[in-house]
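User: Assemble these into one structure.

Assistant: Restating your components, then the assembled model:
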Amino acid sequence: MANNTVAPKSGLRRRIENFFIGLASAYRFVERFFKEVWFPPYEFKELIRQCYQIGYNSLPLISLTGFIVGVVFTNQSRPSLAEFGATSWLPALISIAVVRAMGPLVTALIAAGKVGSSIGAEIGSMKVTEQIDAMEVSATNPFKFLVVSRVLASTFMIPVLVMYTDFVALMGAFLNVNQNELVSMSTFFVQVFDAISFLDISSSLLKSLVFGFTIGIVGCYKGYNSTKGTEGVGKAANSAVVMAMFLIFIEELLALQITNFFRQL
Amino acid sequence: MQNKVIEVRGLKKSFGDLDVLKGVDLDLFEGENLVVLGKSGSGKSVLIKIMVGLLTQDEGSVKVLGQEVKQLNSKALNELRLKIGFSFQAIALYDSMTVRENLEFPLVRNVKGISKAEKDKLVEGVLESVGLIQTINQMPSELSGGQRKRIGIARTLILKPEIMLYDEPTAGLDPITCMDINQLINQVNEEYNTSSIIITHDLTCAKVTGDRMAVLLDGVFGAQGEFEEVFQHATIPSVKSFYDYNFIQ
């Protein structure tokens, strides 16, 4: 007699299946963003509101973190350079480190924690309290209003925040160098700008755009697909941060390889 | 004979292995209040979500104002949705907006070139209809449950719908507020000439607001008719037990 019962899937097989289902769902979400971003109606008012939320409201945290990064990095680098009598290279070393890597990375990680979790939790709670359904039945495209505006705001504001972080970190570094090596501000910043090239600045800004897009789209995706209940909202916020941070590190690695390729040309 | 505004035939919907609707037939006539009763999880909300295209049926036909909902493209579906007001069980007011902004939200997106004066007039008009003009600048979090329900209904009325769908309008409210909401539903029906489907498991709400009842049991309608017809002469044990349970409550 034929056995018609279906054998239960093993845990590993189910996890692999779920992984690919999740990947396909994320791909469709990103694809929908790129389809919808070009066509009206454009939610300018919501975009401005989100830029304010993401940009202006992140300033205190970004300022403090950027300043501390500048001071600590300068302090930690001094002894190594002092061994070779090369403390005069501090401004150049700091500017390269801050502009190429630390500014974008620190800003993106802070924003992933602050902005990514807030987007994930906000959209997640809107989903579970039927606010997204309410938008849909009032003939408004919730994807455009909630997702497109937040992803664009995050993509535009993270590079601005990165430039600001670079400036604050360099100011922190300058105060430290000024106290210890008695270097004037003009000398410090001449050395800073001598050390960095157009490629450093442009690659830093380009990868910041990618980081911003990642933070926005991951937060929105996790919130938009959160399951019912408050537990789902918490999970959406948490996984938005974890996933965004993970992707940011991978993107940083890829950006480094690409920039190095151009540097060697 | 009255016109049918909603016509449902052989509607089936499953979620995984769970068959929620197993062949539902339903008509809503112009100007009537139809109450759909049933236990929690019996598929009442699923039924009205299919009517506005928030969910899609597996089988069967759902015609709203003569249009087959499943076959509409997104533009036509949005045009149809403007003629339907949907009051959610969870109320679904936008937390980050004031009452005024909540009410303006569907207006500014769907009425092209509306002036500020017209917008204010419409917003104040519906708020007066639900008796909450004083809350116009408050945030949803500052309102009571009953007030939030009323504002939710006001938001659906702003586009002057032809059909109102209420999902558990009295759930989680005290008996006095429930009566206020029941009266508001009747008032909306008279003032705005709407046809309504009221989803509830509250028999008082059903008796006060409904012209006709339909009891959803195990995925199909077990009984349909006027209140007395359905309950006081109930022959189906599960319909009788539903009445008895509410009576005891």
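Chain A touches chain B at residues 41, 122, 125-126, 129-131, 133-140 (CB under 8 Å).
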